[in-house]
Design brief:
The complex is a heterodimer of chains A (124) and B (124). With 124 residues, chain A is of the alpha+beta class. Chain A is built from 4 helices and 4 strands; from the N terminus they run αββααββα. In chain A, helix 1 (11-30) packs antiparallel against helix 3. Chain B is an alpha/beta fold and 124 residues long. Chain B has 4 helices and 4 strands; from the N terminus they run ββαβαβαα. In chain B, helix 1 runs parallel beside helix 2. Chain B is globular, with a radius of gyration of 14 Å. The chains are: A alpha+beta (124), B alpha/beta (124). Chains A and B meet through helix 1 and helix 3 of A and helix 2 and helix 3 of B.
Chain lengths: 124, 124
């Protein structure tokens, strides 16, 4: 999907790795959840947005979970700071009553895409 | 099968063919640790070229294999990390310290030759 939206390497792998990490968090901490991918557009850029939700136990201390030294349960880090480093926008909402939602987006600026297209045309 | 394991002199070449489930990861760790003793293996090469994504789970699993195999007297070298995956792992800031890597099988066996030559029975 990232490639279809015009993302160039290594962005598709970065996005896939972030999704893999968040998906694992959901399975480990909540058992089940939902991940929705959507193409988004702004005036000068296109993006791939990932919305991952679960109705699990929630994260009681969100700022701590986003720190690199955080680890929950059996010593496994939540991987959230790592996923955040791979994406451009990252938002985490969580409470112990309703669960957790991670919204993260990777952006591709359109003029860079046009530049890449021009490079490909020139090569052919 | 998810992993093909070949014996080459006193080395093992383990080629991961597809994404591994948690159970398959544990089985791989158990099998490699076992085989070291059965065949007096001095070194193992793990080829991860088939993995499009290496996240914190896979990295931790590889580290566990490296360490438990090391406790049985053998060294491990990882090969097949693609450029995009390498970039993602670095950007994620995974702890890659226990992993020894090489670009391909030839470099891996050369590296193992050097390491096992230095192993004068003192296990270090």
């Amino acid at each position: 999907m990232a490639e279809r939206l015009g993302f160039l390497r290594p962005d598709p792998t970065l996005i896939a790795t972030a999704i893999s990490e968040i998906a694992r968090n959901i399975v480990v901490h909540a058992g089940r959840g939902e991940i929705v991918l959507e193409a988004v557009q702004e005036r000068d850029r296109d993006g791939l947005r990932v919305v991952a939700t679960d109705a699990g136990p929630g994260i009681s201390d969100v700022p701590a979970a986003l720190r690199d030294d955080y680890s929950a349960r059996d010593g496994l880090g939540l991987g959230l700071p790592g996923a955040r480093r791979l994406m451009d926008d990252f938002r985490l909402e969580s409470d112990t009553a309703t669960g957790t939602t991670v919204t993260m987006t990777k952006w591709r600026y359109r003029d860079e895409l046009a530049l890449a297209r021009a490079r490909r045309r020139h090569r052919d | 099968m998810a992993v093909a394991i070949l014996k080459q002199a006193d080395y093992l070449i383990a080629s991961i063919q597809s994404d591994l489930s948690d159970t398959e990861v544990e089985e791989l760790r158990d099998e490699l640790t076992e085989l070291v003793g059965v065949h007096r293996i001095r070194g193992i090469v793990i080829d991860v070229a088939a993995l499009d994504v290496i996240d914190s789970f896979v990295t931790r699993a590889l580290c566990a294999i490296v360490l438990s195999v090391r406790l049985r007297g053998a060294h491990t070298v990882i090969v097949g990390i693609s450029p995009d995956v390498a970039i993602a792992m670095v950007q994620f800031r995974l702890n890659l310290e226990p992993l020894r890597v090489a670009l391909d099988l030839d470099e891996a066996t050369a590296l193992l030759d050097g390491l096992t030559r230095g192993d004068h029975g003192d296990g270090r």
